[in-house]
Amino acid sequence: MKRRGNLYEQKFFTEALSRNLEVFTPLGDYLPQDCIIMNQAGRIFRIQIKGTKNKVIDKANGGMGRYMITTATGSSKKNTLDCTKIDALAAYVESEDIWYIIPCLDIDSAIRIAVYPHNPDSQAKHEKHKDNWDYFKQTY
């Protein structure tokens, strides 16, 4: 699991750099953010990176399934994201090769969220954040 998390982080760093964003990574894994992103205007964003590989098949939505992203932090006791320390969650769906850039305040206090990148008709809460790299264009 740790290996997969490292893979998602590296994929995010590469994608961010290709979009002319600067990436700063802390040493170690004890901070609440996995990286700091700085846009061309100098605005800083604190990012937590998560991902998933496989879809959970369920009977809802005609059996299309959903991808579940664990938004919690901590290894033994799961804690919700602290929006005083994180600005956004970058959630990667590996099998669909798609990123969700979700502002922390839109996650509420969820430990896990569902996303539906394979369903173009989905009206689920976080679908508006699919491929939302414009989030980093904010200047204020």
Concise account of the structure shown:
The chain is an alpha+beta fold.
Architecture overview:
- This protein is α+β, with helices and mostly antiparallel strands and 140 residues long.
- It has one domain (2-137): Trna Endonuclease, Chain: A, domain 1 (3-Layer(aba) Sandwich).
- Helix content is 12%, strand content 26%.
- A five-stranded mixed sheet has the order 1-2-3-5-6, covered by helices on one side. The chain has a two-stranded antiparallel ribbon with strand order 4-7.
- A hairpin with a 5-residue loop joins strand 2 and strand 3.
- It is globular and about 45 Å long.
- The model has no long low-confidence stretch (mean pLDDT 89).
The coarse overall form would be globular
Secondary-structure element series: HEEEEEEE
CATH architecture: 3-Layer(aba) Sandwich
Query: Could you state the oligomeric state of the chains shown?
Result: single chain
Mean pLDDT: 89
- Based on CA atoms alone, the radius of gyration comes out at 15 Å
